[in-house]
């Protein structure tokens, strides 16, 4: 399973192993950190609990903000993305039976890039393991972190092939193992603060084997509940339906899903929905959290391990990439030149943007769900927000900048 780097010690030799950086988790964050380190000729080991085939197919995000694409491009990680991604400049709101196009690129000069997360992960794994010679172990079990507040932390894990327990020493550990990983759980509770926001709603997240039904993302704001249409590829479309939190996906058979989508996305002049087989159907209990600080001793958290943004504003993967750029650059500068500034500033530099996106998420959530809340007051304020976005150029520009996460600094 392992792809051994020509530069690293033979993983089967039984010799004690040391890597400047051990990365836990091969999602967008971990693989980007690994790629940045390999580009700087820094040895690192990536530990991933799933198989390569699994992570290359796991469907999730699809919308990349332009600054994130540019950040990947600057690090030599966007060649395939630029060949294959769709470039979007508008989205559409549907409410009260009408369609309202929102041209965010005209207002800001920036775009969204639609590129399914599995394709990005496939590109990043290939570049890390096959091109840059990075060491990666798939299918590892029972990852544990040790001595994080010492100068010589270590990571232990069980190998899938032999059941043998391995220990790897490191100078730094990058915790990139997502929302359900072990690295966040390794933090002593008295040394970190976790802020959490529960929305009290669920989204039925669907993937349909069907071409998109519209040329851009659609937000359906309807008294029966929110519905979303997210372009993914010419063959596959993601849809969302608001549902009670904790709902059982089995409550949503094929006919009910498509009837609700037709109803909630209906608007004068809208093209009919292109229906297809549902290949993913899961309920997301919508919540956000932020861990502060994002560093403990020699452990740095990045991406969903450090903060979660429910997919309301399509921010999670973008934030994961931003963390990874800062962490990868900071680690490379430290290991190759002894520069400490990037690592010392890491947590603070990430958290500014994290909180900015956290603030936008409940605002947009209320736009989506106020109308279906059953509360006339919330329905009224939702209408006011929409009127302002579509009636005031200044409000429209401010919304577009938050929606796009415009940032020229990275
Ligand atoms: P992950 O992608 O979760 O990667 C973590 C990796 O760590 C995984 O491969 C996991 O298998 C591995 N791992 C876990 N535990 C361990 C362990 N103990 N040991 C070793 N490895 C471990 N974001 C957007 O920006 N735009 C969108 O359009 C968007 N849409 C979304 C739609 C849905 C339905 C969902 C669920 C999410 C969406 N997101 C979106 C969020 C986005 O998918 C995540 O924010 C992103 O995957 C975070 O990347 P990450 O690398 O931090 O974590």
Percentage of residues in helical conformation = 25-40%
Distinct small-molecule ligands in the complex:
flavin-adenine dinucleotide
> What is the count of DSSP helices, taking H or I runs of 4+ residues?
11
Task: State the end-to-end distance.
Answer: 35 Å
**Radius of gyration from CA coordinates:** 22 Å
Oligomer: single chain
Structure notes:
This protein is α+β, with helices and mostly antiparallel strands and 410 residues long. It contains eleven helices and 19 strands. The protein has two domains: 17-77 and 117-195 and 288-359, FAD/NAD(P)-binding domain; 87-109 and 199-286 and 377-404, D-Amino Acid Oxidase, Chain A, domain 2, CATH 3.30.9. α1 packs parallel to α6 (117-131) and α1 runs parallel beside α8. Residues 1-9 have low confidence and may be disordered. It binds flavin-adenine dinucleotide. Flavin-adenine dinucleotide binds at residues 24-30, 47-50, 55, 60-63, 117, 140, 143, 176-178, 180-182, 205, 303-304, 311, 314-318, 320.
In short:
34% of the residues lie in helices and 28% in strands.
Helix and strand layout, with pairings?
Elements: E1 17-24, H1 28-39, E2 44-47, H2 52-55, E3 63-65, H3 66-74, H4 79-84, E4 86-88, E5 91-95, E6 98-102, H5 104-108, E7 112-114, H6 117-131, E8 135-137, E9 141-146, E10 154-158, E11 165-175, E12 193-209, E13 217-221, E14 227-231, E15 237-243, H7 254-264, E16 277-292, E17 295-296, E18 299-301, E19 307-308, H8 316-337, H9 341-369, H10 376-391, H11 393-404
Parallel strand pairs: 1-2, 1-11, 2-8, 5-13, 11-18
Antiparallel strand pairs: 3-7, 4-7, 5-6, 9-10, 10-11, 12-15, 12-16, 13-14, 14-15, 16-19, 17-18
Helix pairs in contact: 1-6, 1-8, 8-9, 9-10, 10-11
The chain binds flavin-adenine dinucleotide.
């Amino acid at each position: 399973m392992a792809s051994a780097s020509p530069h690293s010690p033979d993983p089967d030799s039984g010799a004690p192993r040391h890597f400047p950086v051990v990365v836990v988790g091969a999602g967008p964050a971990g693989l980007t950190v690994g790629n940045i380190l390999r580009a700087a000729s820094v040895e690192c080991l990536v530990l991933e609990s799933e198989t390569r085939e699994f992570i290359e197919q796991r469907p999730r995000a699809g919308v990349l903000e332009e600054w994130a694409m540019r950040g990947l491009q600057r690090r030599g990680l966007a060649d395939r993305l630029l060949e294959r991604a769709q470039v979007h400049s508008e989205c559409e709101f549907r409410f009260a039976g009408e369609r309202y196009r929102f041209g965010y690129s005209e207002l800001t000069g920036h775009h969204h890039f639609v590129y399914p997360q599995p394709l990005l992960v496939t590109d990043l794994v290939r570049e890390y393991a096959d091109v840059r010679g990075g060491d990666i172990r798939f299918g590892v079990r029972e990852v544990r972190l040790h001595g994080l507040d010492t100068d010589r932390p270590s990571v232990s894990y069980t190998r899938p092939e032999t059941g043998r327990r391995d220990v790897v020493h490191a100078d730094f550990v990058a915790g990139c193992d997502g929302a359900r990983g072990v690295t966040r759980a390794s933090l002593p509770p008295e040394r970190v603060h976790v802020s959490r926001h529960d929305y009290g709603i669920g989204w039925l997240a669907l993937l349909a084997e069907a071409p998109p039904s519209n040329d851009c993302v659609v937000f359906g704001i309807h008294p029966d509940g929110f519905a979303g249409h997210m372009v993914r590829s010419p063959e596959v479309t993601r849809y969302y339906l608001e549902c009670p939190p904790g709902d059982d996906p089995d409550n949503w058979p094929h006919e009910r899903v498509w009837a609700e989508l037709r109803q909630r996305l209906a608007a004068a002049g809208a093209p009919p929905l292109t229906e297809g087989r549902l290949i993913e159907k899961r309920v997301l209990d919508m919540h956000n959290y932020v861990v502060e600080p994002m560093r403990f001793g020699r452990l740095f958290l990045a991406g969903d391990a450090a903060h979660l943004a429910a997919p309301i504003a399509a921010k999670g993967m973008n934030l994961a990439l931003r963390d990874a750029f800062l962490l990868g650059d900071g680690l490379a500068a430290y290991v190759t030149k002894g520069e400490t500034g990037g690592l010392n500033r890491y947590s603070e530099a990430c958290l500014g943007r994290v909180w900015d996106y956290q603030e936008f998420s409940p605002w947009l959530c209320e736009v989506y769900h106020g109308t279906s809340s059953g509360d006339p007051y919330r329905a009224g304020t939702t209408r006011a927000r929409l009127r302002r976005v579509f009636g005031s150029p200044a409000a429209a520009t401010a919304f577009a900048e938050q929606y796009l996460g415009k940032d020229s600094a990275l």
